[in-house]
Amino acid sequence: SFDKSAFASSGYSDLKSFRIDNINLMVKELYSGVKNMNSSILFGISPAGNIDNLYAYHCADVKTWCSKNGYCDYIIPQIYWGFTHKSAAYDKMLDQWCSIHTNKNIKLVVGPAAHRAADGEMENEPQALSKQISYFKNQYPSHYGGAAFFRYESLFKPSSAQKSKIEAELKAIRGQIR
Q: pTM for the full model?
């Protein structure tokens, strides 16, 4: 109901299209505003990792953001699941992101979940983070724009119970990230 009156006077017949177009306009204006202030600043977006959910629930047009200039310089999808996740396996989600990433001017940076590797959610996947980066680099070298881990303290300030697991992850990752 928050945008009911704006939608009613918009001329749109479809609420989802109205919302998608307005969010695209907002993202484009944010990008332009940042670039007008300082063209050397990089503007990035880090949306949730499930593309279908982004469209269905958030009206986030990531296909446009990954294919057209003027929306972002880089995009970091939050692909926070392991390879064995039942509904959002890492490789399947990354495959979808690479299929919509068609603009080489926009860096596609994977966002693996260091906190999930540390807290045991990917317990059955030893060296999950390293394997995720390797998969991206090996399967999609022309799309690989780097890796950005969430959260810092999961890698560098782990609890004593997580320490050995994180140390093994860091050792496996060393040399893969650029």
A: 0.84
